[in-house]
Each structure stands twice: as C-alpha cells, then as structure tokens.
Amino acid sequence: MGFTQRWADGYKAAWEADDPAAAAALYAPDCLFRSAPFREPEPPIAYTRREYPKGRAEDVRFGEPVEEGDRGTVEWWATLVTPEGEELAIAGCSVLRFDDQGLVVEARDYWHMEPGRREPHATWGR
Which of 26, 68, 92, 99 pairs with 1 at a CA distance of 20 to 30 A? Predict the structure, then answer.
C-alpha cells in the first residue's frame, strides 16, 4: 500500500470519527498545509479543530490514488451534516507530498461544497 492510500484510509477514519488529532497526526509537524487554494497555510491541527465541529462527516469516500515518487493525489467525496441538521455535499482533491516515513510535508486541497446530499457521478474516483 502506498503512502497516499494509507493517508486516505487514515483521514477517512479520523473524519468519520470526528477526531481532529488523528487527522492531524497524518501530517509532519512542519507541514505546509493549505486547505483551499486562496487560504494561507496553517497547521493541520488548527484546521481540523476549527472545521470538524462545523459538520459531522458521513459517507466519506476516497477515490483511487495516483502516486509518483513522494507525491500523491486523491479525490474525496462526503456529506457533512451541520449541528442544525443541514446536509452539505463536499467533493475535492488532495495533492500531497510525503516524507520517508509517510507523513505529509506539503498538502494542497481543492474542493467545492453545496447544499444537499449528492452521489458521485459514475466515473468519479477512478
């Protein structure tokens, strides 16, 4: 199993368990982490502690990773349920670079969110 698949499995488990610390543990302490293209970098633990309480993750899916050397990319899709019960579809892609131990040292996420629960299209995740 490659580093990207291991990261995806770990992030899925942490996201569904609402465990910000477990998600952040997948990243090196000095990781350059951007949660969206126009956001400033921040520590992964700051991001997960801030964002996880905004919506419980359900039906988290990761596509088949693409990996080359120390870099990997993987699509993801989930439904977030806010504390008020609103469902939000979120889909995106993580572009990752790993150290020799498999921790993420650079991460860039690209994603889109809109109201409702949505199923991925037929060719998603391949």
Answer: 92
- Spatial separation of the C-alpha atoms in residues 41 and 122, rounded to whole Å: 33
- Give pLDDT, residue 56: 95
For residue 124, give Cα distances in angstroms to 43, 62, 77, 121.
Answer: 29, 10, 9, 5
Instruction: Inform me whether the pLDDT recorded for 122 exceeds 90.
Output: no
90-110 pLDDT, tens digit each: 999 999 999 999 999 999 999
Helix, strand and coil in the chain, % to nearest 5: 25, 40, 35
What is the spatial distance between Cα 30 and Cα 71, in angstroms, rounded to a whole number? 17
Residues 6 or more apart whose CB falls under 8 angstroms from that of 102 comprise 3, 6, 7
Which one-letter amino acid corresponds to residue 73?
A: T
Is the distance from CB of 65 to CB of 5 less than 8 angstroms? yes
In 3D, which of 70, 76, 61, 67 has the Cα closest to residue 103? Answer: 70
